[in-house]
Design a protein that fits this description.
It is built from three helices and two strands. The protein is mainly α and 130 residues long.
């Protein structure tokens, strides 16, 4: 391996190691605060945790921004590993759908109109009643 390539590789390794350390430090700070502020109960399935299994309780960022850690904890909720995984799966699954139009818009792929002609039917019924 050339000297230049080795230097670049070491530099990249240092950058990755620093990023991981920063992430670990950031997580340690908000995790400790969240565990002090909130009861050790999963916010979804209501499973209760003790000192023996609290490592299975995670801090979920409601807005999915791990850098948004307000002191009051308003962006956090405690979730068990399973519910946290489910929450992120739902977020990823719906990520591409959030900007698509819904309902009877011109961009909609569906041409079915459930109440087409209803006004005419109601009008003819009221005309017959008179």
């Amino acid at each position: 391996m050339s000297k230049k390539l080795k230097e670049k590789s070491e530099k990249l390794d240092n950058i990755v190691a620093n990023a991981r350390n920063n992430k670990d430090e950031r997580e340690k700070g908000y995790r400790e605060r969240a565990l002090k502020q909130y009861p050790w109960i999963c916010g979804r399935c209501s499973r209760e945790f003790t000192r023996e299994n609290v490592h299975e309780l995670t801090v979920h960022h409601r807005d999915h921004n791990h850098d948004n850690n307000p002191l009051d904890g308003s962006n956090w909720e405690l979730l068990c590993l399973f519910c946290h995984d489910n929450e992120h799966s739902r977020y990823v699954d719906n990520d591409g759908r959030k900007h698509k139009p819904a309902g009877n818009t011109p961009d909609s792929n569906s041409s079915f109109k459930a109440f087409a002609g209803l006004a005419d039917m109601l009008k003819s019924e009221t005309d017959q009643d008179k």
